[in-house]
Automatic annotation (TrEMBL):
It holds the Pfam family MIEAP. It is found in: Cytoplasm; Mitochondrion matrix; Mitochondrion outer membrane. The gene is Spata18. Belongs to the MIEAP family. The lineage of its organism: Eukaryota, Metazoa, Chordata, Craniata, Vertebrata. One of its GO terms (cellular component) is mitochondrial outer membrane. One of its GO terms (biological process) is mitophagy by internal vacuole formation. This is Mitochondria-eating protein.
């Protein structure tokens, strides 16, 4: 039986972390654009399309984090009954969830995200638009966000606010931005954070 050690746990965590960060980058570079292309078939305005995708990312992380929190409580209650050994209960719960991701009801999270988007105040959209069109992107983001919660410390996204001062350490400007404008008009993609440190920059549009 392989015993737990902080050094081995750290190596596993670092490897898992690197894979999840790479996955976040791939979703931004490819699957986000695939979702944009789908939405552009029914929405002509690129700003509206980009706002939809950004809010989908934010809502996906929110839904996955809530699902993770609820599952971790249940797992800790179960493991506490017979927990022994040097490994802290919190770490044991994280390891258990990381090894049993099938416990996560991602379909429920996807449905929660779509419901949230349907009533989101910042999403004016034509009635013929069905956010199920980008279900694949939402599912991938939910799964990724859920897995990121098993890291120590967990990874999360920054929550931007329209009109905030542009922060070059946190965001890139989109190519159609006014590069002299100091304020963010809207967000295209969130920045990935670890505690308060930017791990991967997000993307914004700046305008006067």
């Amino acid at each position: 039986v392989r015993t737990w050690s902080p050094a081995r746990a750290g190596r596993v965590n670092a490897s898992h972390r690197a894979c999840l960060i790479a996955r976040f980058g791939f979703i931004y570079a490819q699957e986000r654009l695939d979702a944009e292309a789908l939405l552009r078939t029914v929405i002509c305005d690129i700003e509206t399309v980009q706002r939809i995708i950004y809010i989908a990312a934010v809502e996906s992380f929110r839904a996955a984090k809530m699902a993770f929190w609820k599952l971790k409580l249940r797992v800790k209650e179960t493991l506490a009954i017979g927990h022994v050994g040097p490994q802290p209960l919190e770490i044991a719960a994280l390891d258990y969830i990381a090894c049993h991701k099938d416990l996560y009801d991602v379909c429920q999270s996807v449905q929660n995200v779509i419901c949230s988007m349907n009533v989101h105040p910042k999403l004016p959209y034509p009635p013929e638009v069905d956010f199920c069109m980008i279900r694949t992107l939402i599912r991938e983001l939910c799964c990724l966000a859920f897995s990121m919660q098993t890291l120590i410390p967990p990874l999360d996204i920054a929550h931007g606010v329209d009109g905030e001062l542009f922060n070059r350490t946190m965001y890139y400007r989109s190519c159609d931005s006014d590069f002299t404008a100091p304020f963010v008009a809207y967000h295209v993609w969130p920045a990935l954070m670890e505690d308060r440190t930017v791990i991967v920059k997000g993307e914004v549009v700046t305008k006067r």
